[in-house]
């Protein structure tokens, strides 16, 4: 009887220790899982995407288990500051204002804003044309701030949504003339919703995405940069990049080949 108790006790201690270990080796990422192809809820209900796949592998490189906290984009840096999350990876553009609120990793992705309109809409030919238009954006994003500060839109004409896909509804319902959003996400809209196009030939500044950590946490920043560099050096970054950003082109290419073959045959 005593022996059994002792065994149970040591088992409990062991489990307790394992629990504590697991706890100390997790790392929490804050993201906004409504921004495909970077972070979104996959068909299986799990959060996935370009950023998310990179994050899982980076955590693995750091010897930690990744935990994801999904929240609105405009609350991410506050969550970081409060310590709710250890880092933020959310297709977040590095800019001077945000650098005052967080530390940023080496840039890991180049982007720019794109303007999405209905297929037959010709009202925007240059960036100057945006000023008097009704614009749909995502709250707290560079697209939102550009509409106001760069394109000079009236605040009453700029709608800011918590979820990026709400911008599409605003456009298709006719309440907005255009959406201003990151180019890869705009491309993703075109793949998933009919009747949209991206206005070609607009000059937009380069934006670089970075991973944010809390001000003062240089130690974690260094680890993240090192893990990112490892994934770049060993080709993993390129593989994930190809999966998310070249796959569509490849499929199109394959379809074309199939059609050509069909036509030939
Ligand atoms: N890159 C844009 C920004 O940083 C949008 C990011 C997002 O909505 N997830 O503001």
Automatic annotation (TrEMBL):
It comes from the Bacteria. Residues 26-248 form the Solute-binding protein family 3/N-terminal domain. Pfam families: SBP_bac_3. Keywords: Signal. InterPro entries: Solute-binding_3/MltF_N (IPR001638). Residues 1-22 form the signal peptide. PANTHER family: ARGININE-BINDING EXTRACELLULAR PROTEIN ARTP, MEMBRANE-BOUND LYTIC MUREIN TRANSGLYCOSYLASE F. This is Basic amino acid ABC transporter substrate-binding protein. The lineage of its organism: Bacteria, Bacillati, Bacillota, Clostridia, Candidatus Avichristensenella.
């Amino acid at each position: 009887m005593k022996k059994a108790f002792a065994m149970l006790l040591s088992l409990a201690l062991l489990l307790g220790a394992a629990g504590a270990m697991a706890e100390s080796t997790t790392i929490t990422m804050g993201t906004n899982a409504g921004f495909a192809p970077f972070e979104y809820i996959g068909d299986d209900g799990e959060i996935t995407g370009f950023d998310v796949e990179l994050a899982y592998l980076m955590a693995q490189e750091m010897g930690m288990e990744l935990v994801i906290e999904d929240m609105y984009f405009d609350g991410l840096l506050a969550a970081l500051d409060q310590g709710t999350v250890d880092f933020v990876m959310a297709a977040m553009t590095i800019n001077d204002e945000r650098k005052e609120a967080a530390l940023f990793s080496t840039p890991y992705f180049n982007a720019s804003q794109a303007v999405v309109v209905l297929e037959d809409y010709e009202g925007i030919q240059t960036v100057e044309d945006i000023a008097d238009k009704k614009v749909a954006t995502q709250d707290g994003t560079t697209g939102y701030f550009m509409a106001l500060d760069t394109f000079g839109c009236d605040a009453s004409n700029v709608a800011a949504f918590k979820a990026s896909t709400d911008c599409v509804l605003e456009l298709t319902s006719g309440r907005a003339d255009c959406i201003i959003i990151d180019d890869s996400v705009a491309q993703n809209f075109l793949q998933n919703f009919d009747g949209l196009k991206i206005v070609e030939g607009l000059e937009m500044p380069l934006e670089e995405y970075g991973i944010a950590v809390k001000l003062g946490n240089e130690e974690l920043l260094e680890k993240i940069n090192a893990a990112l560099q490892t994934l770049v050096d060993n080709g993993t970054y390129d593989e994930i990049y190809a999966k998310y950003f070249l796959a569509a082109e490849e499929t199109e290419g394959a379809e074309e080949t199939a059609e050509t073959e069909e036509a030939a045959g």
